[in-house]
């Protein structure tokens, strides 16, 4: 599957309707973004069961602000509608593959229970 462009109008629906969504926040003037684009596109071809989405931060400024994007490229990964990874910077291909493997294997419900238990202990 090739990458899809996300807008404010379809962002939440895309996240909610797909098991795994990996989002690249980028801009055309950003050198690291342009260098990362072929790595992201190649991963989308290797993993057709995952939605690989791109958000042009210039065209979608409100969406970028809502996502609290302060540096580009920023990569976000969602599983079962939950944000499970967010990091600025372009990843090399091997690191992106490691991220994909980790997201696929993540038990979101268990992770949420663990996080809630940790918060209760710290309170």
UniProtKB/TrEMBL annotation:
User: Where does the record place the site Contributes to redox potential value?
Assistant: 31-32
Task: Name the site position(s) for Deprotonates C-terminal active site Cys.
Answer: 24
- What keywords are annotated for this sequence in UniProt? Disulfide bond, Electron transport, Redox-active center, Transport
Q: Which GO terms describe its cellular component?
A: cytosol
Keyword GTP-binding recorded: no
Task: Please list the GO terms describing molecular function.
Answer: protein-disulfide reductase activity
Q: Which Pfam families match?
A: Thioredoxin (PF00085)
Where does the Thioredoxin domain lie? Answer: 1-105
Taken from the UniProt record, the cysteine pairs bridged by disulfide bonds within this chain are: 30-33
| Catalytic machinery residues | 30, 33
**Does the keyword Transport belong to this entry?**
yes
Q: Which InterPro entries match?
A: Thioredoxin (IPR005746), Thioredoxin-like_sf (IPR036249), Thioredoxin_CS (IPR017937), Thioredoxin_domain (IPR013766)
Annotated family: Belongs to the thioredoxin family.
The name under which this protein is listed is Thioredoxin
* Organism of derivation: Nocardioides ganghwensis
Q: What are the leading ranks of the lineage? A: Bacteria, Bacillati, Actinomycetota, Actinomycetes, Propionibacteriales
């Amino acid at each position: 599957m090739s990458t899809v462009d996300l807008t404010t109008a379809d962002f939440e629906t895309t996240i909610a309707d797909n098991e795994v969504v990996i989002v690249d926040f980028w801009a055309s003037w950003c050198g690291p973004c342009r260098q990362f684009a072929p790595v992201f596109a190649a991963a989308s071809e290797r993993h057709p069961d995952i939605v690989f989405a791109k958000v042009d931060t210039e065209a979608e400024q409100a969406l970028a602000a809502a996502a609290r994007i302060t540096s580009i490229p920023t990569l976000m990964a969602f599983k079962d509608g939950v944000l499970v990874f967010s990091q600025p910077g372009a990843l090399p291909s091997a690191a992106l593959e490691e991220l994909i493997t980790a997201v696929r294997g993540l038990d979101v419900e268990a992770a949420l229970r663990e996080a809630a238990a940790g918060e209760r202990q710290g309170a």
